[in-house]
Amino acid sequence: MNRAPAVPGxxxxxxxxxxxxxxxxxxxxxxxxTYTTRRGPxxxxxxxxxxxxxxxxxxxxxxSGCGKSTILKIVAGLIPHNQGTVHVAGTEAKPGRRExxxxxxxxxxxxxxxxxxxxxxxxxxxxxxxxxxxxRAHDLLDTVGLTGFADKxxxxxxxxxxxxxxxxxxxxxxxxxxxxxxxxxxLDEFTRERLNVELARIxxxxxxxxxxxxxxxxxxxxxxxxxxxxxxxxxxxxDIVPTNLPRPRSLDVIDDPHTxxxxxxxxxxxxxxxxxxxxxx
Amino acid sequence: xxTPDVTQVPAQEPTGLSVxxxxxxxxxxxxxxxxxxxxxxxxxxPLFTIVAILLIWEWISKTGRVDEIIVPAPSDIGExxxxxxxxxxxxxxxxVTVQETVIGxxxxxxAAWILGTLIGVFRPFRLxxxxxxxxFQITPRVALAPVFLTWFGFGxxxxxxxxxxxxxxxxxxxxxxxxQTVDKDAHALMRSFGASRWEEYRKLVLPSSLPAIFAxxxxxxxLALIGAIVAEFVGATExxxxxxxxxxxxxxVADGFAxxxxxxxxxLILYGITEFLESKIVFWRGH
Lengths: 281, 287
Prior knowledge:
heterodimer, A: alpha/beta, Rossmann fold, six-stranded mixed sheet, four-stranded antiparallel sheet, 8 helices, 10 strands, 34% helix, globular, B: mainly alpha, MetI-like fold, 0% strand
């Protein structure tokens, strides 16, 4: 077991002590998840342990079937887990909490709502003050570059713009922790890169904790403080790689030799696991 | 000789300019004309077919190839309709049928909506009712008309029940179908906000299923009219179905046809209203 959790396992982390858990937005300990399918049990995640510190950007990266999306959904409280503990903002993971906000690969905008109404949807469910929420929504639409699109309908927007609206929607109720499940994977390369740069900027200015799932190593390295590298069948953490890249992250960081080195290192790690060689095969 | 030439040139220039601007305008108007022509032809062709059929029909009827009593000429039918719309009894009977259709439609839709939602949302309901519903669907519901007559009498109620029964299915099926079309991620999103089931239904499930429901409503509205008329045939004292039967018994076939024509116009109007509501309510459809 050469997996090295960056933070040593912790016992007795009280569920109702947000002050004590304040240092960690997310704390995952020995998490295992097995799905029961018609063809029998499928082990999706085995003994995963990692943390996301407050304000930290952590990526889960790995090929399909490595359980990265499963972990994210468990953290979001959307699916139960079998073993281990998952603490979010100091308490057990559960849905319907204002501390977390989730974003998917699809923008999931409701076509009968305008962009503004879509952004306001969570504030309605959470029962937040409408006037303040509206102001914040307009500000956020400016932040994500959708000024003047408030009254448009989702289908009038390009894929990239829809995902921007989706980002504004998750930010509107000011969750401390963002859970992002390959949010830009369906977009073309140029749009994805632009949105990555903007996400980095937004993360740096708002200082939210982010758990980001992707299969794109370069994206993971560019955005993250630490990259959790995962292998499939069953999903296990191979290593947790700190990036130590300078912030703010700009386009220069993408071309930085250190970035390239990290990308190569992670890619080798995954190939080595897959082929049992040093990745040159 | 040179002077008149010089004065003539500037005089011609405006003309030359307008000619120069001509092709641009002309090309646009040509394109518009093509579009207009397409629109016109989509009306003209069917119109031509209808007129041709009517002319042949008129000719067959008027030349006595078929007895006018059995197949009255279109002109006679038209005349009958013009006569009928001036009579109070025609409008009274029309009103009865429209009432039966619309109330029956409303009742059928409401019942289908409630049961469909329960079936779609609650698994036990689905297991308990869906097989029954399908079994009932296989039964030709028109066959129930005499039963309804026995149960609910000659009045308007038996017709409403028939109309409701016949338009129940397409709506129910589409309500259940609509509930299944809800986006999985949107469902997860609502859950991540901690939305209650009712909130999720109101803000996500219901709007998501509206396009499918409207597809059912458009089928149902025409079926409701059929249900009302069939029930009237079986036993009634008023309504357009009664008019058709009576006129045919009295061998006033042209009047009978006129009522049928009026019926199809009513059906068209009801369908048009449903489609209009669909375009207003489910405005995002097709995007």
